[in-house]
Write a structure and sequence with these properties.
Layout lengths: L1 H18 L11 E7 L13 H9 L1 E7 L6 H10 L3 H4 L5 E4 L4 E4 L17 H7 L4 E4 L15 E3 L7 H13 L6 E6 L3 H7 L5 H22 L6 E6 L5 E2 L5 E3 L9 E4 L4 E6 L4 H8 L6 E5 L18 E5 L4 E3 L9 E2 L13 E4 L7 E7 L3 H9 L30 H5 L10 H26 L6 H18 L1
Parallel strand pairs: 1-7, 1-8, 2-18, 5-6, 5-7, 10-15
Antiparallel strand pairs: 2-17, 3-4, 8-17, 9-16, 11-12, 12-14, 13-14
Helix pairs in contact: 1-12, 6-8
The structure holds zinc ion.
Zinc ion (ZN) binds next to helix 7.
């Protein structure tokens, strides 16, 4: 009889444990600063002395090459870093887009960039962090000055390219050290992308720009030390994409193959969206297919699966992709840049840099490669935030961490719990179960007695439900 009673207490204890919120890392939240130097290719740190990148690698970790997401342009990849989603899933599929459903255009550099609807196919990490009780600060990160799902970062600076790097750093660090400190910060800097386009990555003049970025990183490290944040903060320095050299000899002129009257052109080389005019799809497609050996032509539904770039209506019905180093233009009257990105994301030249240091990371550890989608679950783990569904994998990058996440044991099947026997080993676990079970029985007895004695005084159940359901429903809709 006593045995049976204990068995029932064990079951009640398990039931109670199921009703409790899962163990989270909320009480162990780490501070995290994510920095992106736009267009910083993975191997730039090997061409000039970069003592500050070296210092981070020595104290922390390096991933030699990050495989970013297709298309290897600024906006798709910056949104991937903070959502863990490929472009077809987060919806920011290009720097310039056209929504055929709503007949609306988007440009990263125009007012349309402030329309929330473009961003709301996903939820960036600063929003999730704040919903989990954290505080976020953003200095010019793409999309961070847009109200997304009704939320701005706790602190942010409206985008203005003329604000110096030093000012951006000072703002962020003041938020990290303020009376109500942030725990997650994002920082963006436009270089070396701009110089990479203008000079070309092979130009020796770009060495000066890379050395300047390293100095800027040194300023950030010094300021972190001065603010007393250096030992506490987890710092990740990465980028959105690399850069490849272009040539005025490698030009694909679309006017040579198909009349411009038959289609609308969306976004810029090296990946261009084509919307054929009504009834002209077959003519446009067949004119371009096999027109030039350096031009890949895809119907949206035929885009290679490994690009993760077809399941979104913002991807145009025909996609043109240039071979590395080639430029797609209507005709040669257009000025050609010397460097560009956007190409196939398996090309080494498109891959960004990655270094990180801080209490969460290993020391002096180098990893060959990672996918940029894996950064999101890693950052969620450091922040103690439950990740939203994403394309990344924490398991793929957990070797970067000083303490890998505990392996979650598989849940014990219910029948085993019901048939559980008296514990053979000396353990506190069964004592806890016993206490929990006893408490639960007493609690339910108390509730039962209270219900019987006060039933007449309680308001009706439907009224209570309405009161409770409103804020919950509102929260749900925000996602
Ligand atoms: Zn660029």
């Amino acid at each position: 009889m006593l045995h049976l009673l204990f068995r029932s207490w064990r079951v009640l204890g398990c039931l109670l444990a199921l009703t409790l919120p899962p163990i989270s890392r909320q009480e162990k939240r780490g501070k995290l600063l994510l920095v992106s130097f736009d267009g910083f290719r993975w191997d730039y740190i090997n061409r000039v002395p970069t003592p500050n990148f070296d210092a981070i690698m020595k104290e922390g970790v390096q991933v030699e090459r990050v495989v970013n997401t297709y298309i290897t342009k600024t906006l798709p990849n910056h949104y991937t870093l903070v959502t863990g989603l490929h472009a077809e899933s987060h919806g920011m599929v290009a720097n310039e887009m056209f929504d055929q459903h709503h007949n609306r255009s988007f440009s990263m550099e125009g007012q349309s960039a402030y329309e929330p609807r473009w961003w709301e196919e996903a939820v960036p990490l600063w929003v999730t962090n704040q919903r989990a009780g954290g505080r976020s600060g953003a200095a010019m990160w793409p999309g961070s000055d847009v109200e997304i799902h009704g939320v701005y970062p706790t602190h942010y600076v409206p985008y203005n390219a003329s604000v110096p790097f030093q000012t951006r750093v000072e703002k962020l660090l003041s938020w990290f050290s303020g009376p109500e400190p942030i725990d997650f910060g994002v920082l963006y800097w436009e270089e070396p992308d701009e110089s990479g386009h203008n000079l070309g990555p092979e130009s020796p003049l770009l060495d000066v720009v890379i050395a300047d970025i390293d100095e800027k990183l040194g300023f950030l490290l010094e300021e972190l030390k001065r603010a007393g944040l250096y030992d506490d903060i987890n710092l990740i320095v990465t980028s959105d994409h690399g850069m490849t050299q272009l040539s005025s000899e490698k030009i694909i002129e679309l006017d040579s193959y198909v009349s411009r009257d038959l289609y609308t052109w969306v976004d810029k080389s090296p990946v261009v969206g084509i919307i054929p005019k009504e009834g002209a799809f077959d003519e446009v497609y067949s004119s371009l297919l096999n027109a030039n050996p350096n031009l890949y032509v895809y119907k949206r539904e035929d885009i290679p699966e490994h690009y993760h770039y077809s399941h979104n209506e913002r991807i145009m019905p025909i996609l043109l992709e240039a071979r590395e180093g080639w430029t797609i233009v209507p005709n040669k009257t257009r000025k050609i840049m010397l460097g560009n990105h956007g190409y196939n994301n398996s090309l080494a030249s498109m891959h960004p840099v990655f270094v990180a240091r801080g209490p969460a990371f290993q020391s002096g550890y180098t990893k060959d490669t990672m996918c940029s989608v894996d950064l999101y679950p890693l950052m969620c783990y450091i922040l103690g935030v439950r990740p939203l569904p994403n394309n990344g994998s924490l398991a793929s990058v957990q070797d970067l961490l000083l303490e890998p996440p505990p392996v979650t044991p598989p849940p014990t099947p219910t029948p085993r719990v019901l048939l559980g026997s008296w514990p053979k080993e000396s353990s506190y676990a069964w004592v806890v179960e016993l206490l929990l079970g006893t408490s639960l029985v007493v609690f339910f007895l108390f509730l039962f007695v209270k219900q019987v004695t006060q039933k007449q005084q309680l308001p009706t159940l439907p009224h209570i439900n309405r009161e409770i359901s409103k804020p919950l429903l509102y929260e749900e809709l925000q996602l």
